[in-house]
Structures are given as C-alpha cells and as structure tokens.
Amino acid sequence: MGEVSRGARALVVCPDIRGQSHDLDPQARLAEAEGLALAIGIVVADSFVLPVRQIRPGTLFGAGQVDNIAIACEQHESELIVIDGALSPIQQRNLEEKLGRKVIDRTGLILEIFGERAATAEGRLQVELAHLDYQQSRLVRSWTHLERQRGGFGFLGGPGETQIEADRRMIRQRMGRLRRELEQVRKTRGLHRDRRERAPWPVVALVGYTNAGKSTLFNRLTGAEVMAEDLLFATLDPTMRAITLPGIEKAILSDTVGFISDLPTQLVAAFRATLEEVTAADIICHVRDISNSSTQAQKTQVLQVLRDLGVVEGEEASIPILEIWNKWDQLSPDDAEELAQQADDDDMVMAASALTGEGVPALLERLGELLTTSAVLREFELPASAGRQIAWLHAHGEVITNEDAGEGDDGPVRRISVRLNPKELGQFENL
Ligand SMILES: Nc1nc2c(ncn2[C@@H]2O[C@H](COP(=O)(O)OP(=O)(O)OP(=O)(O)O)[C@@H](O)[C@H]2O)c(=O)[nH]1
Ligand SMILES: [Mg+2]
Fold it and tell me: Mean pLDDT per segment of 10 residues, for the chain of length 431 residues?
C-alpha cells in the first residue's frame, strides 16, 4: 500500500472507449474520478476526457494521445497520472515508461482509498486481501520480465525456483492466513448479529451512493459525530447507534460504505461482506443526492448492488426501501417544486436536507410509521409444547409455514415462518 503520496500533483484522464456503455456520461465520470483522487489527498492539476476509438493493447491510448498526456504533465507539473479505467499490467508499465511518471488506474486508486480508510479489523483484513489479489494478478501477467533465477539455497522452494514463483507463493500463503483470520472475525460478528436479531429492536440501514449524505444524516439523527466529509468513501466501516422514533422507543440506525460504479472486482467481495448487515435490516433508507445531475444513474447502481445482495429481485424488494431525496437545499426553486410534487405522490419517497435539517422531522415520523406497520418474514424454532407462543404468532402475524423441525432437548420442535412487523416482534419477544 501507499503507492501514491498525499499532496502529489496528478493528471486525471478518463478514457471514453467507443462501444463501452456506461450509466454515467464521460464528464460525470471525470468529475467522479477527480473526487476519488481528492479523497486520497492528490492534487488534481488538470483533467480531461480522451476518446478511444480503438484500444491499443500496449498503451490503451494512441501514440499521439500519449504524447498529449506527456505535454499536459509537463505543463501542469504532474508527477502522477490517474487513468479512470482499467489498465492491463502491460499497459500500465508501458505508459509509465513512456511518460516517465507513475501511472495508476481506477482499481489501484480505489484500493489506495480503501487501504487508508479501513478502520476495523475486518475492514483492514478485507482491504489487504483485495490488494494482494490485485498484486497477484499483476505478477502473473506482467512481471515475467522481472523474473530472475534465485540461487540454490532452497529455503523457500527447490533450487532454481524463480523469484516470481516465490513471490506468488508468498502472496498465496499470506492470503490464506488473512482468509482464516477474516473468518474468525466474521464468526464473532455473526454471533453479535444473531444476538441483535433476537433483540426486539428494529434496524434501519442507510445505504446510497458515495457522498450522498448518509453519514451527515446519521449524525443528525443520532447526534453522533461520524466522519462526514465532502470525500468519496469517507465511511468504510459500518457504524451503528440507537435512535428513538415516533412510536418506537429504540431502533438501531446503521451507516454503511457508499456505493460507486465499476467497483474493482477485487473489492466486490469485501464490500459485499460489509453490506451483509443491510440484509438483516427492517427498513432500508436509500439516501440520494437528488441535486446531483447523475442522481438517476447513481440510483441504478445502488439498486444493482441491492440486487446482488438479494434484497431486490425484479421489481420487488424483500425489505421496504424508503428513498430519501437528500441535499434538497441545493435544488433550484423550479426543480424543487417539480420534485416536491413527485415526492408527495410517492409514499416511499421523503425529501430532506441532512445539512439544514429540513424535512427531517417528517422523515422520522414516516420511519416510525413504517416500522410499526411493515412486516418482515421471520423464522422461529419453538418447542411444540410452547402452545401459547405458537397461538400468539397465528393470532398476530401472518404464518407462512409451520413445520416439523425434528427433536430438541424438550421434545419435538416446530419451525415457523411468520410475517411480523418490528413492533409485533418486540411484543412476541416479551411474551
Ligand atoms: N448542501 C448539502 N450538503 C450535504 C447534505 N447532506 C450531506 N451534505 C454534504 O455532502 C458531503 C458528503 O456527505 P457524507 O455524509 O460524508 O456522505 P456519505 O454518503 O456518508 O459519503 P461516503 O461515506 O463517502 O459514502 C459532505 O460535504 C456533506 O456536508 C445536504 O442535505 N445538503
Ligand atoms: Mg459516509
């Protein structure tokens, strides 16, 4: 880690490759790439989009374009070039040689940010694993030119083992160790989650595109001081706090990592594990920067991640999703008027400004309402002799299945799936 240093002056180049479709247009992608660079303290000296009609396997860009990048580097005194796309290891090496400067691609950049931000043990393990995976792929495909014969002492491998094989094995071993550690950490966290699931407190998860305002809203609702900044990926590790809502004494609010388009594959798994918490929520609040010109594309990306997590299938969501149209204060009066109409017509949309607090009381009201009425499928295993509880479930919830689950310590066990809202769950737990 630490491939780039804070304060480095960089050129940010967004390749617009013909035939590759994107939700975001090139200018929006360029702005996002600048945001990523800023997030790690890089000074953006200049930035531009370069159309690529045909990918050059060796350099991605054509020779004339590479010359133009070199000129721009000179003009703007840049020591680093950020390419907002995927570079093959060979392309990266060739560009570095031709430009005489360090070149980093989008995956490398996001890995750097994640490396700097991860704060919990689990987050750090995930990011290191992702980084090793990235390095490993680079070793396999490009470092062969660096291969050199190792002398025949044979501590690590047989005599004559090449350096690249040794490096590869070391990375593999390290990854194996990290995976085991990660599993251990997750087991502990899994226990916590089970315990919380049994606790009669509903969980509200904030999700959304990076920089949408999740942490700002989290802080406003909880009085906490989670880092909320105009930085992409300000939050990496999930944070939870208790809040009180109208009609609900206690609910758990969780803040999560922001989403971004084209997340590096190496980070998808890490990211998904962090987001698993979301699948145990009673309500998902999808925080949107409604003032952003790419807000629609961002929403598509967020829904895609929720789909990957299994929360959304087709048009159906298994957990109610309340959209929060945040940064309302940034809208022009005309836009505000038009969007207010749409928000009014949809009872799963609330307009708000986490910054000014406008719309927040109504949002709390709506959350309380949803939590007392939205039923989620829950599964219980109860001794068949627990007649009172079983009867209560039938009377208050919508029982979907009630089946034999074998023998327990106290005789036969029933497995019952039932739709209950969080309030009913609380009552049931206190029976
Ligand atoms: N004008 C305005 N700015 C806001 C509002 N909500 C958040 N912001 C600003 O938007 C920026 C990002 O806010 P965060 O709360 O850090 O966003 P996030 O969604 O947690 O971002 P990540 O953790 O990076 O995913 C900060 O500069 C906030 O001050 C709002 O309602 N209005
Ligand atoms: Mg945040």
Answer: 76 93 85 91 95 94 96 95 92 93 91 82 84 76 40 42 77 92 78 51 89 93 72 68 84 84 72 75 94 93 87 84 97 96 96 96 93 79 91 89 88 89 78 81
Atom of ligand 1 minimally distant from the CA of 228: 16
Rounded (to 5) percent helix, strand, coil in the chain: 45, 25, 30
Which residues are registered as beta bridge partners of 378? Answer: 418
**Ligand 1 geometric centre to CA of 227 (Å):** 10
**Predicted complex ipTM:** 0.99
- Residue having the nearest C-alpha atom to atom 16 of ligand 1: 228
At a CB cut-off of 8 Å and minimum separation 6, what does 99 contact? 66, 69, 70, 73, 81
Q: Is 401 annotated as a binding residue?
A: no
CA of 230 to the centre of ligand 1 (A): 6
* Ligand 1 atom closest to the CA of 236, numbered from 1: 23
Q: Report pTM.
A: 0.76
The reply, when asked if residue 331 is annotated as ligand binding, is no
CA–CA separation, 218 and 225 (whole Å): 9
> Is residue 215 part of an annotated ligand binding site?
yes
The two three-digit tokens of residue 217, written as one number:
């809203």
